[in-house]
Amino acid sequence: MATSGYSDLREKLKSMTPHGDEKKNKYADGTSNGGEKGKKRKSRESDDDDYEHSDDSADIREQEARRVRSSILQKNTFTPEECALIEEKIDDVVAKGEAGLYREHTVDRAPLRNKYFFGEGYTYGSQLEKRGPGQERLYRKGEVDDIPDWVHELVIKRLVSSGVIPEGFVNSAVINDYQPGGCIVSHVDPLHIFARPIVSVSFFSDSALCFGCRFQFKPIRVSEPVFVLPVRRGSVTVLSGYAADDITHCIRPQDIKERRAVIILRKTRPDAPRVDSDSPLSSSPVERPAPLKAKRTRRADPDAAHRPRVLEMDKEENRHPSNSRQRRHSISSENYWRRGGQDSDKHRESSGRKVKMRRH
């Protein structure tokens, strides 16, 4: 070793790899650009930690959640036996709807969710001539069926006697019947249509009501809620104030694991706007929908909301390719896309768009 000028093998190895050792030393003492980057990275990570502690977004969300929670009243009102009796009545409503025994605007069908309007019904979503909040309109008097007697006797009277709502408050009852994976997108019950509070009663299974979510589609995705309210079978939920007016609420697909139904009880405002007599939605006589095949299931299917749906019109086309165009208009327009008396030309113009929406 001495003859070669090295006193130690380690010194020889160091002299042979000066760049690697130099790089290591530079990062260690922070004297190079790499060291500066290392310092910056470390500093940035530290800043993130500080940011987490100083950021007030979490505090804002918590404050909003408290405001939502403080404006909700919830009571476990109906016993399992009472629930079972009411659920039988809901099944009767579904059967009558599928048999075509209700007025046209009483039944509104959507993938994995059907609505049944009683007392008062209103236009919303794709039914609107002009989209957006504030454009909703009540149907003309008599265009939906009256509130069934059993709703008065088994549900409304019970809520009046327990002090949840005053006598004579309810003139609108809606039954939402969800299948596993069904949902309803974020919304505020139209302020110009309904007085407050908004009262709902849950049946068949437990679920959740979420506040402050944003929906995206293709595939369906839902952002993190500001507040999640567990909703039990037989419970009554009353929304007023901030929860009813200042933040949206929704039901996410992942929260409907079994069949669930909710009865929504509301009072329409005396000055609520109605569909004009010359509107396309009101231009034809009231019709009754043709019977539909029942599709009932109580088994959970968590992927149901993401699975493409095969429509009855598609099945008919496959069975009768020669007259598919005629079957498309007679079945899809009559059974699935009833839009309050729209003429056949409007059905033909919009059938392609509506079929596309139906597949989601």
TrEMBL record:
The keyword Disulfide bond applies. GO terms for molecular function: metal ion binding; mRNA N6-methyladenosine dioxygenase activity. It catalyses: an N(6)-methyladenosine in mRNA + 2-oxoglutarate + O2 = an adenosine in mRNA + formaldehyde + succinate + CO2. Residues 8-27, 54-63, 299-320, 336-352 have a biased composition (Basic and acidic residues). One of its GO terms (cellular component) is nuclear speck. It holds the Pfam family 2OG-FeII_Oxy_2. Residues 1-63, 271-360 are annotated as: Disordered. Its cofactor is Fe(2+). The keyword Iron applies. Its EC number is 1.14.11.53. Keywords: Dioxygenase, Disulfide bond, Iron, Metal-binding, Nucleus, Oxidoreductase. It is an enzyme of class 1 (oxidoreductase). GO terms for biological process: mRNA export from nucleus; mRNA processing. It is found in: Nucleus speckle. Residues 97-255 form the Alpha-ketoglutarate-dependent dioxygenase AlkB-like domain. Belongs to the alkB family. This is RNA demethylase ALKBH5. It comes from Labrus bergylta (ballan wrasse). The lineage of its organism: Eukaryota, Metazoa, Chordata, Craniata, Vertebrata.
